[in-house]
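Blackboard transcription, Thursday session:
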Amino acid sequence: MLLFLAGCSGIPHPAIQTELEACPQQTAVAIAAEQNQLSFLTASHTLVCAINTLQKSHDLAIQRTALGSRLCLTLAEREPNQDKREKFAAEGVKFAEIALEQGGQGDGAVHYYLAANLGLKVRDHIVLAMGSLDRLENEMKQAVALSPDIDDGGPLRLLGALYLKAPAWPKGIGDLDKALELLKQAVDQYPNHPLNHLFYAQALWEEGDQTSLSQAKAEFVLGEKLLAEGDWGYNKQPWGTEFNEFAQEHAEIASPIK
Amino acid sequence: MRKSYLIMLASLLAPFSVSAAPDAEMIVVCYPGGSVNAKEANGAMSSMLRVVERVGQWQENSFNSVFLTKSDDCKKQIADNNPKFAITSLGLYLELRNQHKLVPIVQPKINGQTSEHYRVMVQKDKFKSLDELKGKTLGGTVLEEPAFVGKIVFAGKYDPASFFDLKPSNQAIRALRSLNKGELDAVILNEQQFGGLGSLQMDTSLEAIFTSEEIPLMGVVANSGSTSVEERARFGKALEAMCTDAEGKKLCELFGVESFNSVDASLFEPMVKLWANGQ
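(Written on the board underneath:)
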């Protein structure tokens, strides 16, 4: 039975659907205490149950953390359906906004998951996406400054990707030089994350000269290997799709991941 | 050519190829010197095209497109496919107009203007005139079309390829950073790039050592041999209505385009003469 649940934390959350009757009895405090066990390896149903519990919590100490936003991003990243993905991401934005309102400004993770969720929420809507560029950049910059090491260099990776893919100056904030610098840092400092290598490969590919193209190919192959050999749980498929799409666009870079 | 509105025009006509009808009309979108990730632009393209199709009362996905940033690729595409409509730079229009019977249909209006100036920027007080730049390095995205720069921007007075040491780039901001550091002697900018200089943090002051005459903005062109007057009029009307449509208005605002206006080929006659007389 699908139930339509709205948060009751005082600040309304968008709804997330789940099979409520199958959710275990749990408290927000217990979820927060065990949060390291909730990751891309966790089943979606478990994550949705946790989110529903967090939505109902009035615990300010939990509200000001990035936990709810992180769990929403974990779900959004693996969700192939656009509508559902955007709902998870929108919920993640809401969690992060509440965290900021409750005093979480100094927590880089809050800024990071806010930006990551916002990016997923707007990426398929050009007007919204263009209108969100400055906010995305600002939140990611704060995440880079406060907690660059979250999610294997996630802030560096996302800010680099933003500069890579946004419309270029003077109309937008897109900037290949900044993208290359940030993504180079990401692969140097956090070499175990496949997407650090994929995004760096994409930036090098944009650079276009022969040296960069050779480097791009090496980065792509390394990222592909890390993805194939690592235990990336539910992220393996969507990330594999990103690798495959890039390979299909640029057939010469590598053979697609099977 | 102001590049952002060219993206806007491109976006009007470049849907996801996978969603286009099998018999969709191919539109060639030429964006010489542009730094555009076609995949990333697809969202905008699809959105805009759907508006144009609705406003023009075409069936959804009536148009398909190909998006190109190299002049040579663009020329080949037009030669191979002989499209009914295309979005081109002014330089490509001037080069291909006779061969493909191209006629302009609409041009954009940006900041109240339907024309622009090009400028050659240098570090302040480093050079006194354009002649002093002989043999010096000149960068910029505009250099993807050196014939256009020579014949139209410099009105035939300078041949860029022989006068300068050309350093083309698809990154305007990178060229300007190089100018700032003294790695380039000069950078040529279009109007929009010039207008964006204030947003950049530069160590050195820049100044324009050369400003072109007014050059009309180019927009959508049609092949007058393969389109009827009615087809061109319908296409033009749809584009003119774009920025007054509720949804289309948001997209126009996003790209800084006030409106698309129908245009007569005679407006470009001075450019045609310069092109014919140029070096």
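Lecturer's comment: DSSP finds twelve helices and two strands in chain A.
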